[in-house]
Write a structure and sequence with these properties.
Number of domains: 1
Number of strands: 10
Largest sheet: 10 strands, mixed
GO molecular function, one term: L-threonylcarbamoyladenylate synthase
Family: Belongs to the SUA5 family.
EC number: 2.7.7.87
Helix content: 25-40%
Number of helices: 7
Radius of gyration: 16 Å
CATH topology: DHBP synthase
Strand content: 15-25%
Catalytic activity: L-threonine + hydrogencarbonate + ATP = L-threonylcarbamoyladenylate + diphosphate + H2O
Protein name: L-threonylcarbamoyladenylate synthase
Order of helices and strands: EHHEEHEHHEEHEHEEE
Oligomer: single chain
Length: 189
Amino acid sequence: MEKINFNYFCDNFDFYVKEALNNKIFIYPTDTIYGIGSIVNKSNIERIYDIKKRDKNKPFSIVAPNIDWIKENFITSNDFEEKFNFFLENNHGITVILSKKNNLFLPDIGVNNKVGVRILKNNFQNFVTKLNQAFITTSANISNTDYIEDEKYFEEKFEKNVDYILIHNYKKSVESRIIDFTDNYKILR
């Protein structure tokens, strides 16, 4: 496990994109709380379930590279982008629930063909955009324990299981608003 200053990470995206493509696991700041994640593949999904000690019936969300990627891969309405941007601008962070166009797409993510999808309001989004593929996102804590946003907690709980902890002084500690876009923009949280 290596601790990296978030600004250094942002200045060296090319290197960390290669690391992500080599299945490295990251703890990273989002626009809400710290997340733990990686590129999406079956092996990484299993690793993150094990790291978090998470019930395998609880799906992970993803960070999408951009809005066009979302519209290409998920069922969206004609006014989706407008509504999405409205919710994104007016909330600290959002997760939208969408149905996949093809159930073979991201086969190990989501449940009943539905996936939680995020676009972040911080520089980690630029990293995912550069990756140009889905990135697993889930809270950086052991399942069924309180969320603690503390560098020492991350080191203690995850040091042997994650590759990088991105340290940032941004403190939010508020979960994202969840909006089900499969049900006429129904706010779930």
